[in-house]
Amino acid sequence: HVQLVESGGGSVQAGESLTLSCVVSGAKYRSYCMGWFRQAPGKEREGVAVIDYDGMAHYSDAVKGRFTVSRDDAKAIPYLQMNSLKPEDTAMYYCAADLIVDRSYVLRRQEYKYWGQGTQVTVS
């Protein structure tokens, strides 16, 4: 049973930074594609950043150049380093995982089977 638990959210001022992490259990972590998604009130859940099995990173245009996704395979933890945060980054952030993800659609939420409960990020 795959479980994902996010942490690291909080309230910050515009321009500041946060790092999110996601503890993964019950899975052969190295085999999984790990994604970070976010959902603001009244909006669809959108892909933010993904790091795939080979360590290749993918980003949405909204965060490219500001966010960095990485993974520690020894600890089974993916990270999302968020710099130069903006008020429009305010959302619930979710960690997602799946074994088989089409690289053409890595930022699409439908590609992921396993999800965490989310961690809130508020930027003012």
How does this structure look, described?
- The chain is mainly beta and 124 residues long.
- Helix content is 0%, strand content 48%.
- It contains no helices and eleven strands.
- It has strands at 3-7, 10-12, 18-25, 33-39, 46-51, 57-59, 67-72, 77-82, 91-98, 114-115, 119-123.
- Strands 2, 4, 5, 6, 9, 10 and 11 form a seven-stranded mixed beta sheet that branches.
- A hairpin with a 5-residue loop joins strand 5 (46-51) and strand 6 (57-59).
What would you report as the Rg, rounded to the nearest angstrom? 13 Å
Q: Helical region count?
A: 0
Overall pLDDT = 94
Shape: globular
Q: Looking at the chains present, what oligomeric state does this protein adopt?
A: single chain
Order of helices and strands: EEEEEEEEEEE
Q: Helix share of residues?
A: under 10%
**Into which percentage range does the β-strand content fall?**
over 45%
Q: What is the strand tally?
A: 11
Question: Could you say which structural class the secondary elements and strand pairing correspond to?
Answer: mainly beta
- The N- to C-terminal Cα distance equals 37 Å
Give the low-confidence spans. Answer: none
What summary fits the major beta sheet? 7 strands, mixed
